[in-house]
Design a protein that fits this description.
With 78 residues, the chain is α+β, with helices and mostly antiparallel strands. It contains four helices and three strands. A three-stranded antiparallel beta sheet has the order 2-1-3.
């Protein structure tokens, strides 16, 4: 499984299971989402980099990221 932006190929997280995918997301999201600080506020960045615990939370974060920029088409590939 991967969380990937189809437009630019950026991979945000990788895992063999949902748990591994979420753990990898949590481990790397602060670094991977630094671009948010250029487009939005620190509060938005902090909200989107809070630790996630369920797939639903990851899906919600991806929806928010996709709404932030036309340069995002982030999906979860299974």
């Amino acid at each position: 499984m991967k969380v990937r932006n189809l437009l630019d190929g950026t991979i945000y997280a990788v895992g063999n299971t949902e748990e591994e995918l979420i753990n990898d997301w949590n481990e790397n999201c602060k670094k991977n989402l630094e671009w948010i600080l250029e487009l939005d506020t620190e509060e938005t960045y902090n909200d989107l980099t809070d630790e996630l615990f369920r797939m639903e939370n990851l899906e919600d974060a991806i929806d928010d990221l996709n709404e932030m920029s036309d340069n995002n088409n982030i999906i979860i590939e299974k």
